[in-house]
Amino acid sequence: MVKNVIIILSLTMFIGCATTITKGEAFPKMYKEKPLSILVLPPINQSTSPDAKEYYSTTIAEPLSLAGYYVFPIEIVNEVLKQEGIYDTELIVDLDASKFKEYFGADAVLFTRIIEWNTSYYVVGGNVKVHIAFDLISTNTGEVLWSYNGELTVDTTGGGNNVGGAAGLLLQLAETAVKTAAQDYTPMAKQVNTTVLTTIPFGLYHAQHGADQSFTGVKVESVNK
Amino acid sequence: MKNTSIILLLIVLIMGCTPQTMYYWGDYSNSLYKVKKDATPEMLDKHKIELLEIIKKSNEKSLRVPPGINAELGYIFLLQEQYDQAIIYLNKEKSIYPESTKFVDDLLHNLTEGEENDG
Asked: What CATH code is carried by the domain that includes residue A144?
């Protein structure tokens, strides 16, 4: 009984804390500028996992294209940037975004920051965490058009869980995570991508382009500061 | 009879509501992941086959080939020194997605320059 009350109370608090606004309110510049093509820069890796950068790159083209954008071929872009000596995006944060218009013809560049891509172990268990922040910058104005971040933590402490649905799926991911640690980050990253990209205004190739301003799922606290 | 009608109606409604799939991406992400994990010519060949499959299936389903797929395939042909094929696929990217023109033209320019230097 007491347990139930606590659960309900924490649910109420949780719901109470999450302020959501519409896509139109959150990202008006996106609707004004209507970028068609996005150049995804190599991720900025702030995690302790050196492989994260290469692996994460394999996950983003598909969901971004499904949101309606032309995504420049990431593999080729990475090679070009390597040849130019700017593959380490850590170094190009300060670079003028308009250069990507000039050299690639891109309307916007997407910076991704891998904040966490880690496995943590503690006395009684452990967890795997993926946390990624996204910033879409206009190559015309240099302004932030869309920004958001998302994270997913999977508890790898075995047993004792009786959750179903989506959470059950996470659990399934977690079980695999224990077996092959490195392999399992990418499915988690994909899930983070999917969740985060529900908040990006649809691009020109999407059937609902320009018609999603009233979508309300944008969490204010998940928009990057 | 009545039940059948209702079921049929429901099916029509559901199908009508389901958004048309935009792209067929096949196993792209996993296939590329394997190349990253094990960067051997064999893995790259497998990835190339996956890209060809994505193009084939997209055509069968009358879907636009996803952004970057033709270009990436062209690039792999380029790495394998099959320049004619490289040019064909890079040009396909450009014709499906005109917004890639500048990017693809620069690649083609470098490619033809490289060939001239070789010859």
From this structure: 3.40.50.10610
Residue A193 lies in a domain: yes
Tokens coding A138: 């206009």
pTM for the whole structure: 0.83
- Domains identified in chain A, total number: 1
For residue A116, being part of any structural domain is answered with yes
Are B22 and A66 inside 8 Å of each other by CB? yes
Question: How far apart are alpha carbons B13 and A1 in whole angstroms?
Answer: 44
CATH fold of B23-118 reads 1.25.40
CB contact under 8 A, B23 and A74: no
Report domain extents, chain B: 23-118
A216 within a domain of the structure (yes/no): no
ipTM above 0.85, yes or no: no
Structure tokens at A43: 């991720």
Residues of chain B numbered 59-98 and touching chain A (CB < 8 Å): 64, 66-69, 71-72, 75, 93, 97
pLDDT digits (tens, 9 = 90+) for A39-90: 999 999 999 988 899 999 999 999 999 999 999 999 999 999 998 888 886 7
Q: Burial level of A20, CB count in 10 A (0-12/13-18/19+)?
A: middle
A75/B contact by beta carbon, under 8 A: yes
Encode A46-71: b = buried (16+ Cβ within 10 Å), e = exposed: ebebeebbbbbbbbbbbbbbbbbbbb
Cβ of residue A73 closer than 8 Å to a chain B Cβ: yes
**Chain B residue closest in CA terms to A78:** B72
Cα distance from A15 to chain B (closest Cα, Å)? 30
Residue A202 lies in a domain: yes
Q: Is the dihedral of CA B29, A184, A202, A147 positive or negative?
A: negative
- Burial tier of A85 (Cβ tally within 10 Å: 0-12, 13-18, 19+): exposed
